Amino acid sequence: MPTLNEMVYDIKNIAYGGEQSDDHRVSDHQVAYWIRQVRAMLVRQELATRNKISSSFVQHLNEVNLTLVDPAEVSGLSTGAFILKSTEKLPETVQRGEKNRITSVESLDGTQTFSETTFFRRKYNKYNKYTKCEPRWYLKDGYLYITNELLIEKISVSGIFEDPEEVANFGLSSGDTPFSWDDTYPIANSMASTVTDIILKTKMGIARQMPNDETNDADEKQINETH
Question: DSSP letter string over 153-205?
Answer without folding.
Answer: SEEEEEE-BS-HHHHHTTTPPTTPPPP-TTSBPSS-HHHHHHHHHHHIIIIIH
